[in-house]
């Protein structure tokens, strides 16, 4: 289930950023897995992915502009994939929150 939301301390989003768009596409790919994926708007949007079967399995994925594409990074800095490999990236994120086998 992909959604977009804002937290109370964030400014309203004036326009959807490129990063927001790519995070939304990743959220769409994650719909194949049993996870919840919400794009959180703010100064730097991120994708909050959680496994409903676990109270602790949550990962925030950020999107960064690179020279030729966009990169998705885990909250702890590990490169998960790029905007050109959404399916593979979604699988890695689902694995991080325990929603799939390696």
Report on this model:
Residues 1-25 are annotated as: Disordered. The chain has one domain. 24% of the residues lie in helices and 32% in strands. The chain contains two helices and six strands. It has a six-stranded mixed β-sheet with strand order 1-2-3-4-5-6, covered by helices on one side.
Strand order of the largest sheet: 1-2-3-4-5-6
What is the overall pLDDT average? 87
Counting DSSP H or I runs of 4 or more residues, the number of helices is 2
- Biggest sheet architecture: 6 strands, mixed
CA gyration radius, whole angstroms: 13 Å
Oligomer: single chain
**Global geometry:** globular
Beta-strand percentage?
A: 25-35%
The low-confidence parts are 7-15
- What is the succession of H and E elements? EHEEEEEH
Distance between the termini: 22 Å
Q: Helix amount, in percent?
A: 10-25%
Number of extended strands: 6
Number of domains: 1
Structural class comes to alpha+beta
What topology emerges from the helices and strands here?
Elements: E1 2-6, H1 18-30, E2 36-41, E3 46-50, E4 58-65, E5 70-74, E6 79-82, H2 86-96
Parallel strand pairs: 1-2
Antiparallel strand pairs: 2-3, 3-4, 4-5, 5-6
Q: How would you sum up this structure in a few lines?
A:
This protein has 102 residues and is α+β, with helices and mostly antiparallel strands. The protein has helices spanning 18-30, 86-96; strands at 2-6, 36-41, 46-50, 58-65, 70-74, 79-82.
């Amino acid at each position: 289930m992909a959604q977009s939301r804002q937290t109370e301390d964030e400014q309203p989003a004036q326009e959807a950023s490129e990063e927001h768009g790519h995070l939304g596409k990743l959220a769409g790919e994650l719909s194949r897995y049993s996870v919840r994926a919400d794009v959180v708007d703010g100064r730097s949007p991120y994708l909050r992915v959680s496994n409903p079967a676990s109270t602790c399995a949550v990962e925030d994925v950020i999107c960064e502009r690179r020279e030729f594409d966009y990169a998705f990074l885990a909250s702890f800095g590990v490169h998960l994939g790029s905007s050109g490999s959404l399916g593979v990236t979604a699988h890695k994120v689902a694995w991080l929150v325990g929603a799939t086998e390696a």
